[in-house]
Amino acid sequence: MSETQYHHHGRFPVSGGVLPDAITAYRTYGDPKNPCIVFPTCYGGRLDSQDYMVGEDKVLSTKKYYVVTLALFSNGESSSPSNTPAPYNGPYFPAVSYEDNIRAQYAVLQKLGVKTVFAVVGFSMGGQQAYYWPVIYPDYVERYVAICGSARTSPHNQCFLEGPKAALVASKDFDGGHYKTQPEIGKRAFGRVYSAWAYGQTWFRQHGHLHDGKYPDLESFLREDWEGGFLGWDANDLLTLLHTWQTGDVSRVRDGGDLAQCLRGIKAKGLIMPSKTDLYFPPEDSVDEVSNLQNTARLVVIDTVWGHMAGGGANAADDKFIADEITKFFEE
Amino acid sequence: MSETQYHHHGRFPVSGGVLPDAITAYRTYGDPKNPCIVFPTCYGGRLDSQDYMVGEDKVLSTKKYYVVTLALFSNGESSSPSNTPAPYNGPYFPAVSYEDNIRAQYAVLQKLGVKTVFAVVGFSMGGQQAYYWPVIYPDYVERYVAICGSARTSPHNQCFLEGPKAALVASKDFDGGHYKTQPEIGKRAFGRVYSAWAYGQTWFRQHGHLHDGKYPDLESFLREDWEGGFLGWDANDLLTLLHTWQTGDVSRVRDGGDLAQCLRGIKAKGLIMPSKTDLYFPPEDSVDEVSNLQNTARLVVIDTVWGHMAGGGANAADDKFIADEITKFFEE
């Protein structure tokens, strides 16, 4: 397994101010002479969790590609409220945009000597980064794969995100981000609010939440997967990372908010893979986007009941479908 | 306008214990000699809010029908945590089921001398009550109309409800239900968590939340419609009413949890009207239910982007569609 490395950017301007010593955490896999694949993290993702698609015999093959995984700011590995020294620690951490993240990732790739990126691949917030890359560095990226993501965070998606955010911010132990110990009550509420959004209604109807007997009931599922799932995260990190997501919009980078025009300007080849049952990155948004990607992108809907989670390594059938489509796309 | 009346049940057993002096608030409209329509409230509904369908020239015509609107326990008008004396006040209020509500409503109708119910009509939690009526009183109800409801609260619906509940319970001012003043922070979080569920994604994509210029942005919409919308509610009322919803399942009344068998036993004629874009009472659940209603019920999907709200008087087009279908159904 690759060791996590840390790139120090020095003084680094971000959308909400500046980080005096911004750090991007990343890992590299395979031979640097191979074509480079960039695979940034999603919400709730760490560099470790990228392994579901990276390996000798996985779709992002470390035998065929030089794979670079990069941690988003606020994920707890790159610069985040939880690991940044005063005066930008905790609730004082500045807002960070996707554009800031991509600029930072580009700096890492420059240091690694990557001359051109064969493909950017991402799921969810990673899928949003996959859209940003060819917009910001049009001559550097050949392909991108956006899985359960979008080029702009839709109003409904923004509204959904207000839910977990509101629960955490209003919680009895969050204390405006000035908590002395982790606000466990707030984070548990955050997880519960999030849970029903992550899968399709049919998945629950088919009792997917019981995970073939792992859980006796909905409550156990919520306690372990959704309360437990966020306990390892810092509350301020969760909020600033959520802010990055909520403000996603490639057309802020150029074209003054005209998303259609911005998308029409993308030169890289795209593979856009929404999940049919995704409740916050619904396929309709992808259809709209692909209609503006002219002939550069292909839409392939993941036919699944797993909702958003389909794209994140949640089950073997969807994993295989996604891997096969990506492999085909890489060979085109 | 009809005056609100209060029926005292005396000592009234409920699923979580007993209410020493249970009260059902209700109103009557029109001539008692006309066919009787029962129209119970939904979540967040008061007797006042039933007026959107009740009136001389509305679908529940007070010229043609004797309309009785009834308030759910926990809605703040019927017995609720907020209006029940000690020792069952506030957080000490017992759990109440749909079955308890229907038994109470039946007692009111008996007092009013209603010999048979021409139709029960309901939206959302009202739609769930519409299913309960013919199950509990099979020889008393001729027709029922379930708008954006279901005969059993699905696991996904239960999971969605955990969100607003968790936000309120975890909030800094809820204090385990022992608050001395209303927990405004908790209720605002509750509303924000709820908001994105109430409409379809497409409604937001079309900027429905801006309400044709009423709101400049998502934040204003959330503040007025969703934070403001719940400030007039008591927090404990919100939670016990939510519990009634969360535990809805007609097959608990009979057939030992076998929903298909319970539905097959319904004799009344049903009109089942889900909204195409409802995120927590999705039409697929209605399709399943109607498949077990043999030839007694008809499914009519409301083709709308308004999500769940389509059934609650949110816009003229859906109102008209629903009214026309109900009128046709009443004449069959």
Automatic annotation (TrEMBL), chains A, B:
| Alphabetized InterPro entries for the sequence | AB_hydrolase_1, AB_hydrolase_fold, HAT_MetX-like
What are the catalytic residues? S124, D278, H308
Pfam families, A to Z: Abhydrolase_1
Tell me where on the tree of life, at the top rank, the source sits.
Eukaryota
- What residue ranges carry the coiled-coil annotation? none
Question: What does the record give under GO molecular function?
Answer: acyltransferase activity, transferring groups other than amino-acyl groups
Q: Which residues form the AB hydrolase-1 domain?
A: 37-158
Family from the record: Belongs to the AB hydrolase superfamily. MetX family.
Protein name as annotated: AB hydrolase-1 domain-containing protein
